[in-house]
Amino acid sequence: MQSANMLLRKIVRSSVLPFATQHGMKKDLFPLSRTLSLSLCLKQDKSCEASEKLDLDEWKKVMKSGLQEEVSETASEPKELSSLAAARETLEMWRLAGKAVPEEISEEQLKTFMECPSKSAKKKYLKYLHLKELYKKNDKRKAEEKRERKLEAQDQASKTDETKKSPFVCLWSSTMDKAYNWRAAQSMIFGQPLVFDMSYEKEMSVREVTNTVKQLVLSESCNRRSVDPFHIHFCNFKDDSLYEREFIKHYREAWGKLLITVTDQCYTEIFPKDKLIYLTADSPKVMKTFDHDKIYIVGSMVDKSIKTGVSLARAKRLGLETAALPLEKYLLWSTGAKNLTLDQMMHILLTLKDTADWKKALEFVPKRKYCGFVNKPVKELKKTLDLINTLKLGKGREKAEKQFAKNYPKKYKLK
Known about the structure:
It comes from Tychaedon coryphoeus. This protein is α/β, with parallel strands linked by helices. Helix content is about 60%, strand content about 5%. Among the domains are: about 95-155, no CATH class; about 190-375, Alpha/beta knot. The protein contains 16 helices and 8 strands.
């Protein structure tokens, strides 16, 4: 029996102990406590009696239990990984089924998805992630489009700069500027005066004054490029006013070189009253023809709230003649007020001065404000439109047909 114990001891020392020392620090496959206890038991074999027996079955059970514990510990580590993989497979199945599932999902979002208490909650969470992903993609697409537009604008600007730098374009522009300035200089001596009343600064806000100056800049540019320009007068123009500051912002150094007359005097002090006509939309008198011997006055005011009667009251206080454009006579007015911008008024007056054609002149009225030009009196057209609308609605059809047949017996037929 002693020889058997010696043999067992040699086997254990030669096989188990080196293996345990190699793998005990990494995976702890064979616990070091058990090997030490086993070695201690083996060392105590001298004090043991010969009748004592080594229980191999118990030793095998101990070794098997250690292996099972290690396998369970190693299996518990990938348990969480296996659940995440299962969740990803579930998401893939839902995606194939056509449900709202995000294309990319992080581990934190996946864990949150697994912690949802019910299936509907999981679907709502995935839908939320899907919409969030779509919004991010849309923002990214918009940013890319904006960047592309910016690059295109830069390319176009560079191209225009190159064309501006070409000698032919520079020579042409300088030559045309000289021609336009020569016409404007001629108009200051021989041209028909056109007055802009600059006394409405207190009637407007800062924004409205800014818009007024922008329209006046467009008016001056349009007048300078015309064949027969007006001699523009800015009357009642105060120094260091908001008008002047806005003009300096636009023209800068060229403000003092403009071929126009700027004065703080009133137009009644410069021109005779019998030649002055104040153009205002509130006037009861309608302008029939353009008179080349008269001096027309335009109020330099942009009012968003449509302050009616302001310019008419000023003209009456000064005892001036007033007139309004014949918009209703030539246009079938649709919507909006009959007030026009200053640059539109300049286009209309220049066209009337050159052609005396109201149809061509009133083409500068915005298209959204009227339905079209009329060849008949507006009252007859309104009656006709009322009759047609009545027939369409079916109210008093017989009476309307008789009235229509009486007014238009042969020219028109209703269908």
